[in-house]
């Protein structure tokens, strides 16, 4: 037993739930299953090709050396998929990765509040919304925490763990124990707009867009300067495309709103691209043009 009175048995998680089967939801579920956790993924609409996509993701992780190829079948057997939210009733830890929309998150968290037990821990992967505000939607805000995974979750080690105003020490301990078992490096932070990484990262991305719009340099030059001059693996415009330009815009707007600081004001070119549907890699076009799959 630890000094806090929490035993190792208290820390054990028997079943994980993941809300949302998008890019982050699938990869977080795969990460957890690859460490032996049974996972159920919920999505508001069950996608027919979900398991085919999951198998492709597993094969990619195997090629990258992150999982063994002969482990794919056992890992996939630990993952189930549903559009029936009541199937998450016996999960003791649930990670929310649904669309970055207040109304969507509110609706899903309210539905789950009537289904899960009073001991269920909730975590949000959101980097935009307040952990405390989302916790207030649930019946037990003391058991709600922010766990910000970085894309791609299988290989990125850092996790920003956000302690909301009402988050209790038990919830923090349980989250840290899970992340330790997932072989991640968690950093516990108080709730603050943008946390640490986004507070540093998005002004750089935004400034790169300003440089482009002012005609100082083209996309490839800006990116190569940061890759060769600052040893970044990706340039800021390439990274923006990877994240999604709509997500970049949302985060910058949130930083402006939450801090009141005009230094986070989004570049007009970023707004134009988002309005035009040029959202980056997922749309096939952003600052660069990408070949669409299939």
* Strand portion: 5-15%
Q: What is the distance, rounded to the nearest whole angstrom, between the alpha carbons of the first and last residues?
A: 54 Å
Query: Would you give the CATH topology of the largest domain?
Result: Rossmann fold
Q: Please provide the count of β strands.
A: 8
As a whole number of angstroms, the C-alpha radius of gyration is: 20 Å
Number of domains: 2
- Class of secondary structure makeup: alpha/beta
Q: Shape, please?
A: globular
CATH class of the largest domain: Alpha Beta
Order of adjacent strands in the largest pleated sheet = 3-2-1-4-5-6-7-8
Secondary structure tally, helices:
12
Low-confidence stretches: none
In the CATH hierarchy, what is the architecture of the largest domain at level 2? Answer: 3-Layer(aba) Sandwich
Instruction: Report mean pLDDT, rounded to a whole number.
Output: 93
* Major sheet size, sense and barrel closure: 8 strands, mixed
CATH homology-level superfamily of the largest domain = NAD(P)-binding Rossmann-like Domain
Approximate helicity band: 40-55%
**Series of H and E elements:** HEHEHHEEHEHEEHEHHHHH
Write a structural description.
This protein is an alpha/beta fold and 294 residues long. It folds into two domains: 8-190, Rossmann fold (3-Layer(aba) Sandwich), CATH 3.40.50; 197-281, N-(1-d-carboxylethyl)-l-norvaline Dehydrogenase, domain 2. 43% of the residues lie in helices and 13% in strands. The protein has twelve helices and eight strands. Helix 8 crosses helix 10 (236-243) and helix 11 (245-259) packs across helix 12.
